[in-house]
């Protein structure tokens, strides 16, 4: 299962991003690959809506209705699911925070890493900071879907 970071979603829908074409093509391919499910953590969905509608974050922000419509379209794909925190989340989260020695803004990364680990998923992100989580399997969509680890 592929679990997506918000940056992949944001790049795919921000035409001004230099990563737009690569992430858009990668995302469409992932959504249409019936062999492997795509998991959208609520953390990533909420970040997408928050950032994509923020005029201080993007040159051409989406309306809140448009952003929510995009999310609904994603979740209508037969192999796309929304995932939240499960019973093992806190344990995995705390392990990631301690082992990777994260604090401040990287705590959110540890939470996303814990969700991916709990789901047995490969985290798909362009953010190199996730490399600090040793147990995490990663794919960077900008490197032709190459497995990072």
List the uncertain runs: none
In CATH, the architecture is: 3-Layer(aba) Sandwich
Tell me the count of domains: 1
Morphology call: globular
* CATH-derived topology: Rossmann fold
Q: How many strands?
A: 6
Average pLDDT metric: 95
Q: List the helices and strands in order.
A: EHHEHHEHHEEE
Q: Which structural class fits the helix and strand makeup?
A: alpha/beta
Report the β-strand fraction as a percent range. 5-15%
Distance between the termini: 15 Å
Helix and strand topology:
Blueprint: E1 2-4, H1 6-13, H2 20-31, E2 38-41, H3 42-52, H4 64-76, E3 80-83, H5 89-99, H6 106-119, E4 122-124, E5 138-140, E6 146-147
Parallel strand pairs: 1-2, 1-4, 2-3, 4-5
Antiparallel strand pairs: 5-6
Give a brief rundown of this model:
The protein has 149 residues and is of the alpha/beta class. It has helices at 6-13, 20-31, 42-52, 64-76, 89-99, 106-119, and strands at 2-4, 38-41, 80-83, 122-124, 138-140, 146-147.
Description of the molecule:
With 149 residues, the protein is α/β, with parallel strands linked by helices. The chain has a single domain, classed as 5'-nuclease (Rossmann fold). It has six helices and six strands. The protein has helices at 6-13, 20-31, 42-52, 64-76, 89-99, 106-119, and strands spanning 2-4, 38-41, 80-83, 122-124, 138-140, 146-147. It has a six-stranded mixed beta sheet. β5 (138-140) and β6 form a beta hairpin. α3 (42-52) runs antiparallel to α4. The chain is globular, with a radius of gyration of 15 Å.
């Amino acid at each position: 299962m592929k679990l997506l970071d918000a940056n992949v979603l944001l790049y795919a829908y921000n035409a001004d991003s230099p990563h737009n074409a690569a992430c858009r093509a990668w995302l469409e391919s992932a959504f249409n690959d019936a062999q492997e499910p795509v998991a959208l953590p609520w953390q990533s969905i909420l970040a997408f809506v928050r950032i994509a509608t923020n005029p201080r974050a993007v040159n051409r922000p989406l309306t809140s209705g448009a952003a929510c419509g995009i999310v609904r379209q994603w979740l209508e794909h037969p192999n796309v699911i929304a995932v939240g925190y499960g019973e093992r989340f806190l344990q995995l989260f705390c392990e990631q925070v301690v082992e990777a020695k994260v604090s401040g803004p990287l705590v959110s990364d540890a939470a996303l890493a814990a969700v991916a680990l709990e789901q047995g998923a490969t985290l798909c992100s362009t953010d190199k900071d996730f490399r600090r989580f040793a147990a995490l399997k990663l794919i960077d969509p900008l490197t032709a879907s190459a497995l990072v680890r």
